[in-house]
């Protein structure tokens, strides 16, 4: 009977738990991959592997996460996705590290707080006889609502907190139409910072031709699909763009290549913008386990092929409004699931052994390298996926390759050893307090939980602490014996990417945490589907990602390749 129950657990599908308003494409993709939806009435509260929602999770959700579970939000990331908060963070980083490293976002002011400063800047430009345009955005609204452009201060009117930003008047145009890029970014960890950028995002067009003479024409100046789908030109055939208002990034790359524009430097700049923006909030994100987050970075490109960060979106829209959405967003969800590093043991979730021991594994999570073991989950998932020519020859990226020379326990044996270690740990604690009266036990628990007074950690103090930790890196001796026993070194990864090829050293393994989506003894994969690892890329980046030297990494990623873009500029003029 026991064997039968064990086999049922092993063969159980992965389970997802979706909250209301979760985009339909998420459910469709998970069912396509052979997952099962969580049943509140028939399953215990922890019998799920993935929980997805549009809003943030409560702190208790993060505190009670299990090794087999994933949450689609990190805590406190809204500070980067609110327009006013992002403006403050970028200003602060510019003040700490220098304006030369944070010039990728237009000058912005938060009103009414910065009204005096804004008036001074506005007056200065008027006295210099510069023709300046400004765009006003309400901080608490999204999808282009409440946005307007003005040139004269008399036209500035607001009844809530707004961000007034310098309007870019020389955007790169395609057949006269303005556009921006929706870049999808997935952060699988903030401690250390691990960032993937999706190569196949969206290009969003305005549906009427760009013209500074008509600032009130939102269809010419705003690229939000939620606005342009109401334009009379939305369904008309537009020169080079076609119907609708979207391209894929693949179409945009083909367009640039057709104009003989070398876009390698452009994408490198975009990756640096993403990384430096995330570094601005990384110190203030509480360390959590088994979380990931998808962000939508809105990037505008000007006529010199310079990218500008406009804003960062929390829970970017995943609705399928057109064929381009279907192509891009379905594959995006598939690749996100592949990023989450599910293992065959995660199908078991709470076994009877774990329930009996009441194991709390937030403090210990070991991964076991396997010899000649295939990722059954990825293979099984692949059988349920819609066929795609771009994926037919791809290897499942959720499997971490292991060197055959590694002498490690088979999966079943490893799980038994871990279960025995943890169960003994909790059983020993039960025996330790078994002979004590109940009052003594309660007293001991209260004593252990007493709060210790300590100075408040502000964001500035956290940044200063990171800068002062350069010479305090934990050495390999700090790794526990248990971690060393179960985690032999990972073989060197190879990458087929020319632009970003991670460079590592063997001594860096200990810098990864014991409990996160990435295996503790293995560096992040350089590519998973269309997701490309953009941070960390080398030993110096890894040090900064582990909270040691933010200044050093900002200086490193701020170095732009000495490459001429004159030919690119000449090609751009003919667009």
Automatic annotation (TrEMBL):
Pfam families: TTL. One of its GO terms (molecular function) is tubulin-glutamic acid ligase activity. GO terms for cellular component: ciliary basal body. InterPro entries: TTL/TTLL_fam. Keywords: ATP-binding, Ligase, Nucleotide-binding. Transmembrane segments: none annotated. PROSITE patterns: TTL. Signal peptide: none annotated. GO terms for biological process: microtubule cytoskeleton organization. This is Tubulin polyglutamylase TTLL2. It comes from Hymenochirus boettgeri (Congo dwarf clawed frog).
């Amino acid at each position: 009977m026991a064997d039968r129950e064990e086999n049922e657990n092993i063969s159980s599908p992965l389970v997802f738990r979706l909250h209301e308003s979760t985009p339909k494409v998420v459910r469709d993709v998970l069912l396509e991959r052979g997952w099962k939806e969580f049943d509140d009435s028939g399953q215990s509260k922890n019998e799920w592997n993935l929980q997805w929602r549009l809003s943030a999770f409560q702190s208790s959700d993060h505190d009670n996460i299990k090794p087999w579970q994933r949450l689609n939000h990190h805590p406190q990331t809204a500070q980067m996705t609110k327009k006013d908060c992002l403006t403050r963070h970028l200003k602060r980083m510019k003040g700490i590290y220098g304006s030369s490293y944070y010039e990728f976002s237009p000058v912005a002011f938060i009103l009414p707080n910065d009204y005096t400063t804004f008036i001074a800047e506005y007056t200065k430009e008027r006295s210099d006889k510069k023709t300046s345009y400004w765009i006003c955005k309400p901080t608490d609204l999204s999808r282009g609502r409440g946005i307007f452009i003005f040139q004269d201060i008399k036209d500035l009117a607001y009844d809530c907190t707004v961000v007034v930003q310098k309007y870019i008047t020389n955007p790169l145009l395609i057949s006269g139409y303005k556009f921006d890029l929706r870049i999808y970014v997935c952060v699988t960890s903030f401690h250390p910072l691990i960032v993937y950028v999706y190569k196949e995002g969206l290009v969003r067009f305005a549906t009427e031709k760009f013209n500074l003479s008509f600032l009130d024409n939102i269809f010419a100046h705003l690229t939000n699909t939620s606005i342009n789908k109401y334009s009379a030109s939305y369904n008309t055939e537009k020169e080079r763009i076609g119907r609708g208002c979207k391209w894929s990034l693949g179409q945009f790359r083909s367009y640039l290549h057709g104009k003989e524009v070398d876009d390698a430097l452009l994408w490198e700049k975009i990756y640096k913008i993403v990384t430096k923006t995330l570094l601005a909030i990384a110190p203030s994100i509480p360390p959590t386990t088994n979380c990931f987050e998808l962000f939508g970075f809105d990037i505008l490109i000007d006529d010199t092929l310079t990218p500008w960060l406009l804003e960062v979106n929390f829970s970017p829209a995943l609705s399928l409004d057109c064929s381009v959405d279907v192509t891009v967003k379905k594959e995006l969800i598939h690749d996100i699931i592949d990023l989450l590093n599910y293992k065959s043991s995660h199908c078991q979730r709470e076994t009877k052994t774990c329930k009996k021991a009441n194991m709390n594994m937030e403090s210990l999570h070991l991964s076991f390298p396997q010899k000649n073991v295939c990722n059954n989950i990825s293979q099984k998932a692949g059988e349920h996926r819609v066929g795609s020519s771009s994926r037919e020859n791809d290897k499942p990226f959720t499997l971490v390759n292991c060197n055959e020379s590694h002498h490690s326990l088979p999966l079943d044996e490893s799980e038994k050893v871990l279960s025995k270690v943890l169960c003994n740990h909790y059983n020993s604690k039960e025996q330790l307090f078994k002979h004590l009266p109940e009052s003594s036990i309660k007293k001991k628990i209260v004593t252990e939980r007493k709060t210790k007074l300590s100075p408040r950690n502000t964001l500035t103090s956290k940044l200063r602490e990171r800068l002062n930790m350069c010479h305090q890196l934990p050495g390999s001796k700090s790794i526990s014996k248990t971690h060393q026993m179960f985690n032999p070194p990972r073989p060197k990864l190879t990458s087929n990417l020319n632009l970003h090829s991670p460079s590592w050293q063997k001594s860096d393994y200990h810098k990864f945490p014991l409990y996160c989506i990435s295996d503790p003894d293995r560096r992040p994969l350089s590519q998973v589907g269309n997701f490309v690892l953009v941070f960390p890329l080398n030993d110096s980046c890894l040090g900064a990602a582990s909270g040691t030297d933010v200044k050093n990494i900002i200086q490193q990623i701020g170095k732009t390749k000495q490459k001429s873009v004159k030919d690119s500029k000449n090609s751009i003029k003919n667009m």
